[in-house]
Amino acid sequence: MKIYDKFQSRRGGVIIIVIIFVMIAAVTAHKLALNSETAVRGAKEELLKSYLLEYNMALLRFNLEEKKWPASISELTQKKGYLRNLYPDPFTKRADYLLVEKKENKYIVSASSEKSLSGIPYNRLCVNAARKFVPVAPVNPPPLMRLMSHMPVR
Fold this sequence. Notes:
Helices cover about 50% and strands about 10% of the residues. It is mainly alpha-helical. It has one domain. A two-stranded antiparallel sheet has the order 1-2. Strands 3-4 form a two-stranded antiparallel sheet. The termini are far apart.
């Protein structure tokens, strides 16, 4: 009888240890899954930043050389020397960027309404020369020339 009782208590202890191990493994796997999703979103954001920087630099060059803003993004691809083509947006998977006009300036932004890691939708974010997202606010947005130069944005 004593041997049977000892066997039962050891068996119960092993089961408790296994349950704790499985719970720790589940929590760790969940955290790893969240970190990988954030890493993928961050990589997509970096790609979007490089595209937007290139597009807004071309937009600014167009404005400085032609003394006017283009009517559409396709005008940048049609005229030689500005953009060869538009890359697919990493979030929408289509080359559907928006040309936004705010306070006598134009900006090219993503068409995606998904929220960025900072919590602002991508279609409200521009990129400065330091490849940082800058909100294109309805009130007092920074001029594109200042964004594309290396002057600090306040």
